[in-house]
Each structure stands twice: as structure tokens, then as C-alpha cells.
Design a protein that fits this description.
Helix 4 packs parallel to helix 6 (165-176). By secondary structure, the protein is of the alpha/beta class. Among the domains are: 7-249, P-loop containing nucleotide triphosphate hydrolases (Rossmann fold), CATH 3.40.50; 257-317; 455-527, no CATH class. The protein is globular and about 65 Å long. It has 20 helices and 25 strands. The strands form five sheets. Strands 15-25-24-18-23-22-21 form a seven-stranded mixed sheet, with helices on both faces.
Length: 625
């Protein structure tokens, strides 16, 4: 068991000035904070002498990789954990001696906020108001304020279980705010939320700060959100590596960020080469180009990297994410990409096909699908419909995916993409229409199709009480692997995904990035031709996300067809083509460049700009034909 704090350890940190919260500049002050846990019979130090001040009436971002200590610090601030050593004041109150007073003045929204799905929006708010002792005569005005701020006024009577993912997050935030807290703690509030809902959640947070003077500490796995904070604190291995405005971190990366484009090789192959180059710290695919970060003291010039044909090098402005990566990677000699993934012999005998470029289609209709390439598609969806009673979740959806393509299925929460995805995997019956995967008709032989595909669910769905090794043994047997071949594939999984050091650890105790590695290894055990990935990097930090995509790019280069859903718009840049859905229908299909050009609204538009532009246009019935 982790040791309990004693008077001696709690007194080890320096005292705070005896000032009230009104006089104190910081709403959170941590001095020498330590917290450990027992994990797999080992002591793990979640916080190791952490020092941090959080300023009032602003949004402060707590940024760090998986396992850095973000959630532990949040829970300490909320009075849900006691520190092993050090001191912590929140709103001028000691979190150990004045726990109840702290909890009465703050709002805390954890990663998995506990809504009651069989209660309505209004009933959930009433329940949390009762729990927090909000006076009845104050509720109507507060509810109206929250409903107006969140845009949830039309949905007061809707059951929470019937809300989209983004609306559930809004309701969770509303329930957290029913008592007008002075400090708001938000632990990754936008994980799994589509870009439209993410922006709406941020608008709510900004209004709380500007109109009510609320102080906000927010952790996030999306580093673009760090740019929206007044101040950020970078946490790693339980200590603070740096704190300041996003601009103060960006300026430290001047002269180290570049755009690379080659007309001779694909961006995926260019990325693989750059990640092995001694001067390159990071390489991120952005459509047909790369965004690279060089190592400290290295600037690229037009004559550099001359071994790559038809290469152009253009300087780019730095981002906070660049500093984040440099802070964690600059000491590494050379970033080593994952070992090549071995797939089935049948696939290894073929080289990856070049991607067939198709014309951009807006408001795609199934009748427009007349290309002869459809006959050779690995995935072919034709006028797919899925009904739940009288509700049509998927309405006449058609598209095709060729061998070796990475194909994105995007949409707002509730757009029907997950339902479409589950039909394509053979996990959900098709109401009407047809679908073939790897040459097998899903309406007549779904089990035969499933034998040719790998599937990675949005939520970790392996056996949490089993070790990594036991999971690999179980699922390899379930895929029909036997004898020497089974042993070889298990060894391949341990080696390719660096799982060997954790082979005997229960999978439920693994950091999220390692859970993701294990889930992907299991999905690939039988060497599938098609890989289905349902929001596989939701909540995963940028380092783990990059490693994951290096694996996926290798698979695509070897001819594996990948279909992925994601809410992270930079991941859409890795797709060869994608469709964007809303209200069960396909709004548009094309390459990321197509989408940005058509819907981005300006020359340097991002995929998030394009996504939001398309969704807003569809809501206004203004999608171009």
C-alpha cells in the first residue's frame, strides 16, 4: 500500500504566505508535492517533488504525456487524494486539513463524468444541484444561464443516454457548474469529442472566465488546445518541466520547423526516411507534405537532404507542440521507428498499390458511384441503410476503399459513422443495401469476412484482469493460430510493440499508450488484409499517437487496407481519402487537400477548419453540389 502522509512529511515543504485567496496571486499553489501508488507490486511515483502555481481568472493548461501525473494532480487539488509529501493549497485552503471547504468551492469534471443516462438533462442537473446543496431559489436562474451558454435549451427533456458524445460532455460540464465554483478542474474534457463540440466547449470555458471570473485548470491530450490557454505547465514524470504562455514556448523553437514536399515519393515514405535522419527530431504527415522539426542547432537549407529527389524545403512557424516534443526527445540520439511489421505471406508477395486518385465529390450520392475501379475495391459499400425502429441511423451511404489505402470515416458525434463502421466489420446487421469486405458479402457471410479483418475498438476491450501474455495467448487461439506459428506471432507482438517488459503485467494497469499497443497487436495477430480502427488514439498523448501512426503507415505500404474513424483532425491528414458524414449521410468524399480547399475558407486552412466549415454549411443547407 502507498504510505500515508504524516505530520513530518507534510511539513517538509516550505510554508505558504498566510494570505487570503483574494490577496494571493495563485488559486493553486503546490510545493514539493509527492504521491506514489503500488502498481503490479511496485511503487510508482506519480508526482515527484512537483512545484506549481496556477494563476486566477484564466485558463491554465496542464500538458504532459500519458502517465505524467496530470490526473493525480487534479485529484489532489479536488481533495480526493492526500499527498505523501509536500503541501498543496487551493483557493488559499489546505487540501489536507480543509478538504470539505475546498470541495465546496471548486468544480471538478473527471475524465469519465458520471451522468445518469436514464435521467433527462434537467433531471441530471437537479440531481447534482441536490448533491451540492444548491438552494432551490437560485436554481432557475443558474439553469437558464447554463442552458443558454451551452446551447442545450432545446434538449432539457431528452434522456442523457440519448445525447451525442459532445452533448454529454456539455451536460457533464453543466452539472459541474450548477453551484458557481471559483475554480474549475477539467481533466481532458474534450477526449472523444468532435471538432465542432470541442470548439463549443471551449467557448463555454472562455465565457466562464470572462463573465464569471472563474479560474480554470485544464488537462488535455490535444496539444493544439494548449494554444488556447493563457498559460501552460508542461508536466513529465511527476515534475514540471516549464511554465509560461504558449508564445513563450513557441519562440524557443524558432528556426527548427519546416515543410517538406517531394514529387518523387509519397509523404508516408518520405516520413519513414526522415525519421531515420540524424538531423530530424519529428516528422508529421500533412496531406502530401511533411511537417518536420529539426534537432537543436540544426537549420535546413535547400541543398540539404539532397539524397531525396524533387524535394522542396519551406520554413514554417513553430507551435507549442514542437516544444513539447523537443522537451521530451531532444536528448535522444535518433528517433528509432518501430520495427517493420510482419504481415501475411499472401500480402508480403505483393507491393502496395499506388492510391487511385478520384475526383472530389460533395453531397455524394450512391448513383454517382459508377467507376470501374469499384469491382476491385477491398471495401465496397453500396447504399447502406441501418434502422433502429423508426430511426434511420445510416441513410444510403456509399463509398469504396482500394487495397493499401488509409481511408477515414469522419463525422460529428451522432453522425452515424460508428454505426457504419460496425456494419462494415460485420458486428451489426445491415437493414438494406450491400457491403463486401475482402471479397466477402457481409449480408450473407459476415463470419467469413471477419476472419480476414482486424478490429481495434474505441474503448479498450481486451481482458483487463489478464496479463499481456495471457491476452496474446487467448486471442491467438481465438484466431485459430496453433503450434509454432502461434508462438512466433506472440513473439512478434512482444517485439514489434515493445511489450516484453510488461508481459506479465495485468493489462488494466497499463498506461493508455501501452493498452493501445496491445490492442493493435491483438488485431494484427492473424495477419489480416483489412484493419478497422475505431477512434484508436482517443485520449492518447502525441508521442504514443505518432508511434501508432508509424505502425499504420508501414502496414499500408505493405498493402494492408485501413479504415479509421477519428475526431483528431490532424490524423485525417494521414488518410489517402476520407468521407465526412452528418445525420447518417455522406456529405463529401475526397482527399484531405480536397476538403481543405473546398471548405477551409482560407489559404492555410487546417482539416479542423474544413470539417467545421462543411458541417456548418450542411446545417445551413449550403453544401456545394
Amino acid at each position: 500500500m502507498p504510505h500515508q502522509p504524516t505530520a513530518q512529511t507534510l511539513a517538509a515543504a516550505p510554508d505558504f504566505p498566510s494570505t487570503s485567496v483574494e490577496e494571493n496571486k495563485a488559486v493553486i499553489e503546490a510545493r514539493g508535492l509527492e504521491k506514489g501508488f503500488m502498481q503490479a507490486q511496485k511503487q510508482v511515483h506519480a508526482l515527484a517533488g512537483l512545484h506549481l502555481n496556477v494563476g486566477p481568472r484564466q485558463v491554465t493548461g496542464l500538458i504532459g504525456p500519458d502517465g505524467a501525473g496530470k490526473t493525480t494532480f487534479m485529484r489532489l487539488c479536488a481533495g480526493l487524494l492526500r499527498p505523501d509529501a509536500g503541501k498543496l493549497q487551493v483557493l488559499g485552503l489546505d487540501t489536507v486539513r480543509q478538504t470539505l471547504e475546498v470541495q465546496a468551492r471548486i468544480g471538478y469534471m473527471p475524465q469519465r463524468f458520471g451522468l445518469y443516462e436514464d435521467l433527462s438533462v434537467q433531471e441530471n442537473m437537479d440531481l447534482f444541484a441536490n448533491l451540492h446543496g444548491v438552494a432551490h431559489d437560485r436554481r432557475a436562474e443558474r439553469y437558464q444561464r447554463l442552458m443558454e451558454m451551452s446551447g442545450m435549451e432545446p434538449f432539457g427533456k431528452r434522456l442523457a443516454g440519448k445525447l451525442s458524445g459532445g452533448m454529454k460532455q456539455k451536460l457533464g460540464l453543466m452539472c459541474t457548474l450548477v453551484r458557481s465554483p471559483k475554480l474549475l478542474l477539467l481533466d481532458e474534457p474534450t477526449v472523444g469529442v468532435d471538432p465542432v463540440s470541442r470548439r463549443e466547449l471551449w467557448q463555454i470555458v472562455y465565457r466562464l472566465v470572462e463573465e464569471e471570473g472563474v479560474s480554470v485548470l485544464l488537462s488535455t491530450a490535444y496539444l493544439d488546445e494548449a494554444e488556447r490557454c493563457a498559460e501552460v505547465a508542461l508536466i513529465h514524470q511527476g515534475t514540471i518541466l516549464g511554465q509560461g504562455s504558449p508564445a513563450s514556448f513557441r519562440v524557443k523553437m524558432q528556426g527548427r520547423t519546416w515543410k517538406l514536399h517531394s514529387g518523387a515519393i509519397s509523404s508516408r515514405r518520405l516520413q519513414m526516411r526522415m525519421l531515420r535522419h540524424a538531423s530530424i527530431l519529428d516528422a508529421l504527415v500533412l496531406g502530401s507534405s511533411l511537417r518536420v522539426v529539426t534537432r537543436q542547432g540544426i537549420a535546413l537549407k535547400p541543398g540539404d537532404l539532397s539524397e531525396i529527389d524533387d524535394l522542396t524545403i519551406t520554413p514554417l512557424p513553430p507551435r507549442f507542440e514542437d516544444f513539447f516534443l523537443a522537451a521530451l526527445r531532444d536528448d535522444e540520439e535518433v528517433l528509432t521507428p518501430p520495427a517493420p511489421l510482419e504481415i501475411t505471406q499472401e500480402l508480403e508477395q505483393n507491393t502496395a498499390h499506388p492510391v487511385v486518385q478520384r475526383p472530389f465529390v460533395s453531397q455524394m450520392d450512391a448513383s454517382s458511384d459508377a467507376s470501374p475501379a469499384a469491382a476491385t475495391a477491398i471495401i465496397q459499400a453500396d447504399k447502406l441503410v441501418r434502422r433502429f425502429g423508426s430511426f434511420i441511423a445510416v441513410d444510403q451511404v456509399s463509398f469504396r476503399v482500394d487495397r493499401g489505402e488509409i481511408f477515414g470515416l469522419l463525422g460529428a458525434n451522432g453522425a452515424g459513422k460508428t454505426t457504419t463502421f460496425r456494419m462494415l466489420c460485420g458486428l451489426l446487421p445491415i437493414s438494406s443495401g450491400s457491403c463486401t469486405v475482402a471479397g466477402v458479402n457481409l449480408r450473407h457471410a459476415a463470419s467469413a469476412a471477419r476472419a480476414k479483418i482486424g478490429y481495434m475498438a474505441q474503448k479498450f476491450s481486451l481482458y483487463g484482469n489478464l496479463s499481456i501474455m495471457h491476452n496474446l495467448h487467448f486471442f491467438s487461439s481465438a484466431y485459430g493460430l496453433r503450434g509454432k506459428h502461434r508462438s512466433e506471432r506472440i513473439q512478434w507482438a512482444l517485439d514489434s510493440f515493445a511489450l516484453k517488459p510488461f508481459a506479465e503485467v495485468p493489462s488494466q494497469t497499463l498506461p493508455l499508450g501501452y493498452k493501445q499497443r496491445l490492442a493493435l497487436a491483438v488485431a494484427l495477430m492473424h495477419g489480416p488484409k483489412v484493419l478497422f480502427l475505431d477512434e484508436p488514439t482517443s485520449g492518447v498523448d502525441p508521442l504514443a499517437r505518432r508511434e501508432f501512426w508509424q505502425h499504420i503507415n508501414q502496414l499500408a505500404e505493405q498493402g494492408v487496407t485501413v479504415l479509421i474513424t477519428t475526431h483528431f483532425m490532424e490524423e485525417a491528414e494521414y488518410c489517402d481519402r476520407l468521407v465526412i458524414m452528418a445525420e447518417g449521410r455522406v456529405l463529401a468524399e475526397g482527399t484531405p487537400a480536397d476538403m481543405k480547399r473546398e471548405y477551409g475558407g482560407h489559404g492555410e486552412a487546417s482539416m479542423e477548419d474544413a470539417f467545421i466549415g462543411l458541417i456548418k454549411a450542411s446545417e445551413s443547407k449550403e453544401v456545394p453540389t
